[in-house]
Design a protein that fits this description.
With about 120 residues, the chain is mostly helical. It has two domains: about 1-65, lambda repressor-like DNA-binding domains (434 Repressor (Amino-terminal Domain), Orthogonal Bundle), CATH 1.10.260; about 70-115. The protein is built from seven helices and no strands. It has helices at about 1-10, 15-25, 30-35, 45-55, 55-60, 70-90, 100-115. Helix 2 crosses helix 3 (about 30-35). The longest helix has 23 residues, at about 70-90.
């Protein structure tokens, strides 16, 4: 996965292997071997490449599909908001319940949802 992601990131920036290798301070042959999958980079090199392209190391090696933490946090916030809004909408149908009871019910349901994950 690393070689594929490296190639994708490089081509998105319209760079050739030589330019990227120079920017990273590594030999062109090493860059070619990384992209072909014939050589595995060191952890330090992975960090350097991730920083250069402003992506997470997890993304670079294929553990995550989001390029950086900010994307993941944004997605999590949107999902949480949708869950809460949906839950609030459902709780509006509980006629006659005091606000405090509705808040308690919401907290209980959220706790159940967290346990299911």
């Amino acid at each position: 996965m690393f070689s594929k992601r490296l190639r994708e990131l490089r081509t998105e920036k319209n760079m050739d292997q030589k330019s990227l290798a120079e920017d990273l301070g590594i030999p062109v042959m090493v860059m070619m071997l990384y992209e072909s999958g014939l050589r595995k980079p060191t952890l330090e090199c992975i960090k350097k490449i991730a920083k250069y392209f402003e992506v997470s190391t997890d993304y670079l090696i294929g553990l995550k599909c989001c390029r950086n933490c900010k994307e993941m946090q944004s997605e999590a916030i949107v999902l949480q908001h949708k869950k809460e809004r949906g839950l609030d909408h459902q709780l509006n149908y509980v006629d006659g319940w005091p606000t405090e009871d509705r808040i308690l019910l919401k907290a209980f349901i959220n706790k159940i949802l967290i346990k299911e994950k």
